[in-house]
Amino acid sequence: QVQLVESGGGSVQAGGSLRLSCAASGYTVSTYCMGWFRQAPGKEREGVAAIERIGIITYADSVKGRFTISRDNAKNTLYLEMNSLKSEDTAIYYCARGTGASCYTSRFRYNVWGQGTQVTVSS
Description:
four-stranded antiparallel beta sheet, mainly beta, globular, seven-stranded mixed beta sheet
């Protein structure tokens, strides 16, 4: 059974850091595009970062220089290191598996989703 389970969310003050984890089961994370998305109250789900099978990484402009996506193939886990957090980073964060090896902006090109983990940044 293909499954993604996120962890690592929580509450932090502005300027702080968090590391999100996404443990995959039922397949190997290095064989698919993997992405992180977030959804704030009243807003659409948006892409934050993605890593392609061959390792090409992309970030949303709003998180460039602050967030780092990575994967540990041995642990079959995806990570999102978040530094210099801002109040506008407050959202539920989801990891997702793309439909193939390449990554796309649209969330509709991702077909396996985790349950989400809440990140709250207070100013």
